[in-house]
Design brief:
With 110 residues, the chain is α/β, with parallel strands linked by helices. The chain contains three helices and seven strands; from the N terminus they run E-H-E-E-E-E-H-E-E-H. The longest helix has 9 residues.
Amino acid sequence: MPEFLVDPDAKARAWLDAHAGDSPHVIAYNVHRCCGGGKICEVSVRDLKANDDAAGFVAGSTLDGAQFLIDRRAARRLPRRFTLTVRGAGPLKHLDLDLTGDQWGELLYT
């Protein structure tokens, strides 16, 4: 049983159907330091890369079985069930998490 239930909305479901593949999607969490010492956190949904280490992820899936790998650093801060949506337009269209303001704050700033 996966630790997380990923619930795609209608737009995300259509995107997933159009981009179906054999490998799971990854919910990646990146932390960068800026020149003043501040911390910049980013979350993205992307395809699995060859150099991704499976030990750095926990399992997630949709009700219909689509698989996701979630970065362990993000997993500590995410609700056990969350929604995916599509944001952007044209070539910038991408999958994204659909969280409340408090959930984004917990994920990015805690």
